[in-house]
Write a structure and sequence with these properties.
The complex is a heterodimer of chains A (217) and B (578).
Chain A lengths: L1 E4 L28 H8 L31 E3 L6 E9 L4 E5 L1 H6 L4 E11 L4 E7 L9 H12 L5 E6 L4 E6 L14 H8 L4 E2 L5 H6 L4
Parallel strand pairs in A: 4-9
Antiparallel strand pairs in A: 2-5, 3-4, 3-5, 5-6, 7-8
Chain B lengths: L8 E11 L8 E11 L4 E5 H4 L13 E5 L2 H10 L8 E3 H9 L10 H7 L7 H12 L6 H25 L5 H20 L1 E2 L2 H23 L5 E2 L2 E2 L1 H10 L16 H10 L4 H12 L12 E2 L38 E8 L2 H10 L2 H8 L3 H8 L13 H16 L3 H8 L3 H14 L1 H17 L1 E3 L5 E3 L6 H26 L3 E6 L2 E7 H22 L7 E7 L10 H11 L6
Parallel strand pairs in B: 1-4, 4-5
Antiparallel strand pairs in B: 1-2, 2-3, 6-9, 7-8, 10-14, 10-15, 11-12, 13-14
Helix pairs in contact in B: 2-7, 5-6, 7-19, 8-11, 8-21, 10-11, 12-13, 12-18, 12-19, 13-14, 14-15, 15-16, 15-17, 16-17, 18-19, 19-20
The chains are: A alpha+beta (217), B alpha+beta (578).
């Protein structure tokens, strides 16, 4: 029972096009030919997820302070990834403020000159380590000196530091594993400082923190 | 996308068929075929008497023609049953509908009716479809009026195909659609080949299965006392747990969590639970009655290609020999003079993740041949001189961590798996992030793409819409699973077209067979082509593969199932595995 009929469908492919897709014969060849594989490779789509969406991680928090006891860290090797500043530390709130030089002169007993070093931990968290500069005699106390040594050594090695009350300085521990180098975010030091001290820059003696420390409030 | 040209025509094809002698597992017997030329609408209807004598399809199937079907593997099965050469080009509108709508809610499903309704196209009623299908499955003989009704029904499907092709032709990703069609031909070759079984042992097992279950329960339950007949009594299990001081996870409702995954996890930390877990698993997953076995003793069933959201095959667990408990795979046995080989890619998901993310450390770990130990070394937990022997404990923990990342497991679950404090699990997961930063960046981008772009895709166009899917775990896992599926599809195409007899695809593996004298060569070809498939999908990065061979009279055996197989065989006097 073979029957035929005709009832035209409404739309058609472009029958004028000369393009014919090259496919492999159904009759099994004994080996996949190199052209078969080349044809397949030409169809591969890249797994470049997010490439056109432009998602990037924003830098929103940059803590300032010494690394915590269990925290392995590295410091940036570039000289321009440090920043000299006058720092005012408010112990009660554990907040650090950058003080403009003209204001710092007026409250020199409350501020101290530091070098801020860009640092990063194993979880890729960026932070700034303030290392007090040597005093007028060119020396630092053992705490500051050992911290400075650790910051310098951390340019090449993953380190952690721990306070040693007996020696009055920091013990430095070096990671023995062959850990990969840090993956630094593409931010310059100015950007890190700006985020770290957003709303924490003292430009006048009238700043409430200064007024509080001077006993005026 | 621009449509290709087929100067010899485009033919919409549908068969009606039933399994030979009415037995599921047998090859199909074509009852009729309707072919509609598109777009002319010229239609030809053939009854089985017309089809049988034809040496080939009565329409062009060469390089300049296209064959269009819905769920084309079934049509290709009929081609093979008739001894016809398979068409050079196949477009399957089922695979294209699945690909286009994967991840969307489809109230009418993804069958032909569902696709027509999705596009607002005319359909015949579902009830009428069921009635006609039942009529075909009776296997005949059919009266003249019934024949005409079956032919009309068959024709209604090709008319529906014409509507569907007209509506979707400009939306198709033609080159990749034809690749998927090519895979449906490979599926048909595999389905028609099937898996050889030891039917003698299967029949013995079926005949005595009730007694076997009772005996198994009696043997295991004597130490627990939790079964009442064949029923697992939850209250008794709770009593046992209290008496043995075993803290058991509970559901939000407060009831004991009795899913197999929980039993499996608990059996790791409380070994006394393991036997009862094995028993529950064996009883619940052993649905022997549903296994589809043809007259020739081969397990054949629909492989359900593209059924899973990842694009993987999803054959019925009860019909497919690889579905039930692993010990039942002992029923797989090559026929006399033949051998079987189970070829699987080594650590496929890890390799895919490494290659697609381009993480150099991860790729180096894969290339080392032991990515788990390499991870431990890269993370600084083992020296460069470490081996599997010298650092077995570390390797096991880092292996568990790799698998935990792949499965999206949290620190608590990982801790339970490795019997370590949560802090250790947290540390391991953190080490993974630190060691494979490029991978994690890429994985995060995949989630961003899914959430912002609304879809994710694999290398050859399989995609998922993610507007309704915000499960972080499955989004991160999709690229590995979906590209693994693409890799398997390409391997199936390459192997079947190279003349290798593929019995079954099994997740990241292929079961092949060959006469004993040709088995070594078949294995070498299969390994080479599977390597080729991985290079195609992973832009030149090659995955290795491992082989297990089973030469007649040996049977297939999964080491995880040996104990249960031997237990049951001892009960029924069947062949034990050494």
């Amino acid at each position: 029972m073979t029957e035929t009929s005709r009832d035209s469908d409404t739309s058609a492919l472009d029958l004028n096009s000369s393009r014919i897709i090259a496919m492999q014969p159904t009759t099994p060849p004994k080996q996949a030919t190199s052209s078969a594989v080349t044809d397949l490779q030409a169809l591969r789509l890249p797994a470049n997820y997010g490439a056109t969406l432009g998602v990037k991680k924003l830098l929103t928090i940059v803590p300032v302070g010494k690394p915590k006891k269990p925290q392995f860290f590295r410091t940036h090797t570039a000289a321009d990834m440090t920043f000299a500043a006058m720092l005012l530390e408010q112990k009660e709130s554990r907040e650090n403020y950058v003080v403009q030089p003209n204001v710092a002169q007026e409250i020199s007993e409350l501020v101290r000159p530091v070098q801020l070093h860009a640092a990063i931990d194993r979880q890729n968290n960026v932070f700034l380590i303030p290392v007090p500069l040597p005093g007028e005699a060119g020396t630092r106390n053992p705490w500051h000196e050992s911290l400075a040594q650790a910051v310098e050594a951390a340019k090449l090695k993953w380190l952690r530091i721990a306070a040693n009350m007996h020696t009055g300085g920091y013990d430095i521990y070096e990671a023995e594993g062959a850990l990969p180098d840090p993956d630094w975010p593409a931010h310059d030091m100015d950007a890190l400082v700006e985020v770290a001290f957003r709303g924490k820059i003292i430009t006048s003696l009238n700043h409430p923190v200064v007024q509080s420390l001077l006993g005026n409030v | 996308m621009a449509a290709p040209t087929f100067p010899d025509g485009i033919y919409l094809v549908d068969f009606e068929f039933h399994p030979a002698r009415g037995r599921e597992g047998n090859p199909p017997v074509p009852v009729c075929m309707v072919v509609r030329e598109w777009p002319s609408g010229h239609t030809s209807r053939y009854w089985q008497d017309d089809l049988q004598p034809m040496p080939n399809a009565p329409f062009p199937t060469g390089d300049k023609a296209l064959c269009v079907a819905y769920y084309a593997s079934a049509e290709m099965d009929c081609f093979q049953a008739l001894g016809w050469t398979l068409p050079r080009h196949v477009l399957d509108l089922y695979t294209e509908f699945r690909c286009r709508t994967n991840g969307l809610r489809l109230p009418n499903g993804s069958g032909l009716l569902g696709a027509l309704l999705h596009y607002g196209l005319p359909t015949i009623g579902g009830e009428q479809k069921d009635a006609m299908r039942d009529l075909v499955l009776t296997g005949g003989p059919w009266r003249l009026a019934e024949r005409l009704a079956i032919l009309d029904y068959c024709e209604s499907d090709v008319v529906a195909l014409a509507h569907l092709l007209s509506a979707t032709q400009t939306q198709l990703d033609w080159p990749r659609a034809l690749l998927r069609g090519r895979y449906m031909q490979a599926v048909s070759r595999i389905q028609m080949n099937g898996v050889p079984l030891d039917t003698e042992t299967l029949e013995r097992l079926l005949a005595r299965w009730n007694a076997v279950q009772d005996q198994l329960i009696a043997d295991v339950d004597r130490n627990y006392g939790v079964y009442d007949g064949r029923t697992f009594k939850v209250s008794r299990w709770e009593t046992y747990l209290v008496a043995n001081d075993i803290p058991w996870p509970r559901l939000e409702s407060g009831r004991l969590d009795l899913c197999d995954a929980t039993f499996r996890e608990m059996a790791r930390t409380h070994v006394q639970v393991a036997p009862i877990r094995e028993l529950r698993s064996a009883l619940s997953e052993m649905r022997l009655a549903g296994l589809q076995v043809g007259d020739d003793g081969r397990n054949r069933c629909l492989l359900s290609p593209f059924r899973a959201r990842t694009g993987r095959n999803q054959p019925s667990n009860s019909k497919f020999i690889f579905g039930p408990s692993v010990w039942l795979r002992g029923l797989i046995r090559p026929r006399q003079g033949w051998g079987l080989a189970y070829v699987d890619w080594s650590q496929q998901e890890f390799g895919i993740a490494a290659a697609l993310s381009g993480d150099p450390a991860m790729m180096a770990a894969y290339r080392s041949g032991d990515p788990y130990l390499a991870f431990a070394i890269q993370a600084g937990a083992a020296p460069w001189t470490a081996t599997k022997k010298t650092h077995e404990a570390e390797r096991e923990q880092f292996k568990a961590c790799v698998l935990a990342v792949q499965y999206g497991m949290g620190e608590a679950s990982l801790a339970a798996r490795i019997s370590q404090p949560v802090a250790r699990a947290r540390q391991l997961l953190s080490l993974h992030r630190q060691t494979y930063r490029q991978f994690w960046k890429w994985s995060d981008s995949a989630v961003d793409e899914a959430v912002l772009g609304g879809r994710l895709w694999a290398g050859f166009g399989w995609q998922i819409h993610t507007r309704e899917e915000f499960n972080d775990r499955s989004l991160r896992n999709f690229p590995m699973q979906a590209n693994g599926a693409e890799m398997l599809r390409i391997a199936c195409i390459l192997l079947t077209e190279a003349g290798i007899r593929v019995c079954a695809p099994v997740h990241d593996a292929l079961l092949i067979e060959a006469p004993l004298g040709e088995l070594d060569e078949a294995i070498a070809t299969a390994k080479s082509l599977m390597g080729e498939a991985s290079r195609v999908v992973l832009d030149g990065f090659e995955l290795g593969s491992e082989v297990k061979e089973f030469r007649y009279p040996d049977r297939y055996m999964d080491k995880r199932g040996v104990v249960m197989w031997n237990t049951v065989m001892n009960l029924i006097g069947g062949p034990v595995s050494v």
